[in-house]
Please model this.
Amino acid sequence: MAEKKVLVGMSGGVDSTVAALLLQKEGYEVVGVYMKLHDNEAYHRENYAKARRVGEYLGVEVHFLDISGDFRQEVYDYFVEEYRTGRTPNPCVVCNRQIKFGRMLEFADSLGIEKVATGHYVRSDGRYIYMARDRSKDQSYFLAQVRKEVIPRLLFPLGEWLKEEVKAYAAEIPVLQDLATQKESSEICFVENDYTEVLQRHMEIDREGEVLNEAGEVVGTHKGYMHYTIGKRRGFTVRGAHDPHYVLSVDPERNRIVVGTREKLEERSFEISRINLFEDLTEFDCQVKVRYRTRAIPAHVVIDGERGRVELGEPVYGLARGQFAVFYDGERLLGGGEIL
Ligand SMILES: Nc1ncnc2c1ncn2[C@@H]1O[C@H](COP(=O)(O)OP(=O)(O)OP(=O)(O)O)[C@@H](O)[C@H]1O
Model:
């Protein structure tokens, strides 16, 4: 009987498969769990079957955990409500806190297992989380809201791996070959193509509205405010405009958007709430990412109770409310907060 036991979140994809394999090689007794998150039954049938196939290959049990009720309440409903209020949610950040590194750890507790692993591309030394070696796949941004108490329990076997190496590793194993070549999953697991398809199931999002300039004059029309996020530059009309125009703000109550030229998107400071830090910091210098796919830029942060203020060392163009500001000290994740 192996002394070291680990619960691995097995989605049926190549990353969690290789993660489980590497842990087993290291001498861990692996127990798998497939979590049913959203309610696309066909998706789950297909992916749970893959996870079970990997389980058979590894000779490990793969539990099926239906937490679709929790997921709906804490991730999906939040996603829909945020768009309804004219904001731009980040469901993966919330899912990692509440579900993957929340409910999945409770499930590990119920099995008497201390360690939990996933195929996320991040590194950890048991105290902090760091960017992955594969910077193009780095997922540390999405872990900024994870509770700091859980970090010592987490293992991320892929932190030092490049995605290409992971695929090549799986491709060597005949029964896993198809996983190595399958197409990458979409960024948000319950969004197949476009987020508006999800919103459409819950409300009327195609309601034409007015486009205003900063002076408050009506200059065009748009398709319905939920189609827009700050910084977007397509899908609306602006009469007589020569330069490209960008969404500067969204007014859900009046179904209006305000647009302007790129320099009007410039922001040098902002407020945050839902603050989560891995160290007790109240005032600090760091680098901040204001969305996932962006470069980290220098910042000074002051925390005051539930709120914080971020002063940027250089301007950003387009700051979407509802996205997360994520702080780093070099490669080390310091935490983050939601942009107000
Ligand atoms: N439905 C699920 N059940 C169990 N674990 C999951 C599930 N979805 C994701 N995970 C875990 O979270 C990790 C990161 O999830 P993400 O959605 O980013 O997956 P991914 O990069 O597509 O990985 P994979 O190739 O393993 O599907 C996965 O590697 C896996 O360990």
Observations:
- The domain at 5-181 is CATH 3.40.50.620 (Rossmann fold).
- The pocket of adenosine-5'-triphosphate is lined by residues 9-11, 13-16, 33-35, 37, 100, 118-120, 185, 189 (CB under 6 Å).
- The first strand starts at residue 5 and ends at 9.
